[in-house]
């Protein structure tokens, strides 16, 4: 089983204590985003979890927790979204200089394979031109060289919560980004991939990839896994199945492009009411909900893997 922590919120930044508590308790409850009367229950023992995938824009509160994760026997990697956007776009993040240093510290701690750099979403407007993105990407690549091997890019989607603020990019703009970014990434030893994009950028050496990535999970876990494509994601998404333990409208980062936030007022209500000892990120069940077991066993292949053969050799 792969745990996603989380597409819906920034657990490392705001809920690291809750997450560690849930691992120690051995389970978490997951509110159904469409039906408040239904809750999922998932067991979190290390023998069931093949890998934890963290999603964050600020891992600093989690970095000091990594020793605990290691001691408990969990395997993990980070999807670290780090962009050059200013506080008007990403309202509540630390300064980018601080986050760049945090990326380096995390990569040194988790190894470069354990930290995937996400430069997304990319959008074009009056203040953020194609040339601006290329200049900023080049600067960030110079600073992150040697600390990550993968960079995932994606282009702004017109979700209902963001369509009033951002326009879709044209194919010409996307091609311009792909051309400029690919050259810069190659110079710094970073492989570029797209996330949930239909457009084919292979001519620029940019391939489709996945965030919950089978190959990366296997590399981190140290064995092959049986994995299916996640049917609950968008058609262009290549991610394998995972269980997300987060909740929508709980991330205080305040990013104006966020699809997981519909109301900052609701976010603040959830954040203020958060109890790190509660079984759910959003608190305690009332007792009237229908609870469904969402635990799945380890997806480890039974036969000896390439990784295990190499370890024995």
Could you describe the 3D structure shown?
- Helix 6 packs parallel to helix 7.
- The protein is of the alpha/beta class and 313 residues long.
- Helix content is 31%, strand content 18%.
- The strands form two sheets. The chain has an eight-stranded parallel sheet. Strands 2-3-11 form a three-stranded mixed sheet.
- The model has no long low-confidence stretch (mean pLDDT 91).
- It has helices at residues 11-14, 16-25, 60-63, 66-72, 96-110, 130-144, 171-187, 214-221, 264-273, 306-312; strands at residues 2-5, 27-31, 38-43, 51-56, 76-81, 115-122, 150-155, 191-195, 207-209, 243-244, 290-293.
Number of domains: 1
The biggest beta sheet is recorded as:
8 strands, parallel
> How do the SSEs run, as a string of H and E?
EHHEEEHHEHEHEHEEHEHEH
What's the quaternary structure here?
single chain
Q: Could you estimate the helical fraction of the residues in percent?
A: 25-40%
> How many whole angstroms does the radius of gyration measure?
19 Å
Strand content: 15-25%
Strand numbers in spatial order across the main sheet: 9-8-7-6-5-4-1-10
Mean pLDDT value: 91
How many β-strand stretches?
11
Shape: globular
By DSSP (H or I, 4+ residues per run), the number of helices equals 10
- The N- to C-terminal Cα distance equals 28 Å
The assigned structural class equals alpha/beta
* Uncertain parts: none
Protein name: DUF1848 domain-containing protein
InterPro entries: DUF1848
Pfam family, one: DUF1848
């Amino acid at each position: 089983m792969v745990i996603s922590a989380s597409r819906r919120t920034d657990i490392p930044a705001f809920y690291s204590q809750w997450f560690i508590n849930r691992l120690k308790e051995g389970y978490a409850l997951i509110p159904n985003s469409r039906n408040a009367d239904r809750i999922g229950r998932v067991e979190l023992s290390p023998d069931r979890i093949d890998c934890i995938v963290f999603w964050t824009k600020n891992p600093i509160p989690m970095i000091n927790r990594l020793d605990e994760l290691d001691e408990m026997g969990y395997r993990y990697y980070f999807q670290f979204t780090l962009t050059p956007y200013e506080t008007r776009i990403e309202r509540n993040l630390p300064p980018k200089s601080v986050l760049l240093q945090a990326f380096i510290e995390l990569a040194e701690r988790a190894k470069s394979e354990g930290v995937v750099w996400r430069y997304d979403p990319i959008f074009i407007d009056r203040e953020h031109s194609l040339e601006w993105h290329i200049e900023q990407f080049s600067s960030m690549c110079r600073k992150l060289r040697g600390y990550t091997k993968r960079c995932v890019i994606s282009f702004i989607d017109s979700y209902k919560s963001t369509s009033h603020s951002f326009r879709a990019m044209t194919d010409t703009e996307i091609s311009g980004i792909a051309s400029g970014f690919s050259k810069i990434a190659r110079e710094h030893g970073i492989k570029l991939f797209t996330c949930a994009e239909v457009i084919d950028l292979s001519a620029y050496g940019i391939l489709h990839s996945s965030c919950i990535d089978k190959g990366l999970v296997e590399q981190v876990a140290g064995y092959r896994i049986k994995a299916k494509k996640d049917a609950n994601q968008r058609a262009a998404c290549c991610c394998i199945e995972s269980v997300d333990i987060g909740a929508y409208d709980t991330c205080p980062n305040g990013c104006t492009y966020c699809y997981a936030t519909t109301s900052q007022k609701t976010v603040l209500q959830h954040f203020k009411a958060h109890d790190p000892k509660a079984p759910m990120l959003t608190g305690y069940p009332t007792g009237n909900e229908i609870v469904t077991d969402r635990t799945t066993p380890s997806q480890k292949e039974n036969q000896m893997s390439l990784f295990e053969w190499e370890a024995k050799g």
